[in-house]
Design a protein that fits this description.
The protein contains three helices and six strands, in the order H-E-E-E-E-E-H-H-E. It is an alpha+beta fold. The N and C termini lie far apart (69 Å). About 5% of the residues have low confidence.
Amino acid sequence: MKSTLFNMVAVLFSITLIASAGVGAVNMITADAIAEANALATKQAVENVLPQFESNETDDMVIDDMAIKIYTAKSGEDIVGYAVESMTKNGFGGVIRLMVGFSPEGKILNVNVLSQAETPGLGTKMCDEGNALISSIQDKDPDDMSFSVKKDGGELDALTAATISSRAYYEAVERANEAFEVVSGAKSAPDSVSGATSTNDNQEGAEAQEGGNNE
């Protein structure tokens, strides 16, 4: 009886060990693939928001307790623009991540939405080419605007029935502009910016937004 019990335990242990090893191997393979895909997506996003460039340098900083990465793009020794990977936690569906391109002078060149969990057909329109949000800020100098939607007394357009998503989008762009100003030397770092380094190289509901729920 003891021998049978021992054999059963040994078999179960062996099965668990093999299964765990298999899961670990799959996770390692998957992690590498995900990391590679993320790196490629980031590279493409930088290229999408900037003019053609030959190389870039990266800076990392923290603004409002959120990690921000800045890519300074160069052709030779000339800076052709800055791409800032920014974020907000105040989207209707939570975190929104953006890549914002700036000219050397500070104008907003383009915005690429990296990730979002907004409501399909409403907040997700921030990903559409030529949407109301990008149209309100593209080719403009952030110093000449306040990042507020018209409903809040500002001058920027919002997505229809997606005001919360729109506010969050502009918040992330404004945070990107803060990072640009620090890295470009346009302004000194405000108190909310910390931990800059350089290298070379709220859940409001996952259910659908209906009526004015995102207002």
